[in-house]
Amino acid sequence: MLRVENLVTRFHTYDGVVRALEGVSFEVREGEIFGLVGETGCGKSVTTYSTLRLLPSTGRVHSGRITLSGESLLDASESRMREVRGGEIAMIFQDPLSALNPVMRVGDQIAESVWLHDDLPDADAVAVRVEEVLGEVRMPDPAGAARAFPHELSGGMQQRVMIAMALAGRPKMLIADEPTTALDVTIQSQVLQLLRQLKQEAGLTVLLITHDLGVVAELCDRVAVMYAGTIVETAPVEELFSDPKHPYTQGLLAALPGASETLAPVPGRVPDLLAPPSGCRFHPRCPLAVDRCRAEAPELRGDTRQVACHEVEP
Known about the structure:
Elements: E1 2-13, E2 16-28, E3 33-37, H1 44-51, E4 59-68, E5 71-72, H2 78-87, E6 89-92, H3 96-99, H4 106-117, H5 123-136, H6 142-147, H7 155-167, E7 173-177, H8 185-202, E8 205-210, H9 213-219, E9 222-227, E10 230-236, H10 237-242, H11 247-254, H12 291-295, E11 301-302, E12 306-307
Parallel strand pairs: 3-8, 3-9, 6-7, 7-8
Antiparallel strand pairs: 1-2, 1-4, 4-5, 9-10, 10-12, 11-12
Helix pairs in contact: 4-5, 4-7, 5-7, 7-8
């Protein structure tokens, strides 16, 4: 459904050019939950903002190709992108309280999405659709929630409102950007279960952005691992956890609590993307690095299992 090929995105700042994404490639298949995982600042959210053309004025897609069901999004007009956003691809943003308008009732905010993307005859029909979509996300008392302001709802209910807004336009694909951030464990579990049910009941395709490997293991069908603006490994989720190939993926899994008697952090520091390392961006921290790694960036190789490493076979 969604294919990203050799995506290069940069931010032009007063300090210089931030090379945020460098040759990012992956595909999301129809009907699956695809995880994009990596530590904070690796480029996960920038990838989705590039896909929906929501970058700030300093950001620019320099090269690459992004297609949705064969249609190029980078070549689409702005009016076409307004149809795509919400109508074909909807997004759940990280912090629901900052994403929701604090002075508008929840129902009015969801109604905006309904008016834009659903052909309903009048306000009464829109109100019915608002309550219907709140019911779809298992909101207790949908009518009461529609009359509430965001601050009157709990964090979990605010997140359900964000999901309801995303579903209001009946999209084919849902991008969930850290949907469980700042939620307690019980509410996290409820939100993840809801996403799983929506996939099954509505046939949604989901791109899940997260740094939580536990969430990936519980929810995703396939996963891509990002490091410093590049994809280093893509695999079915069971294979990634049972047999990680890339040294960075191995380091991430080894650093999980419970993976060993003592935590094993990945040595070194995340590179400054104003002046990223030459060749493979992970080579300053990699135990397998050789001279070729310092001089030449590896390509993502393989079929169902892909690895970007000169020293590892996919």
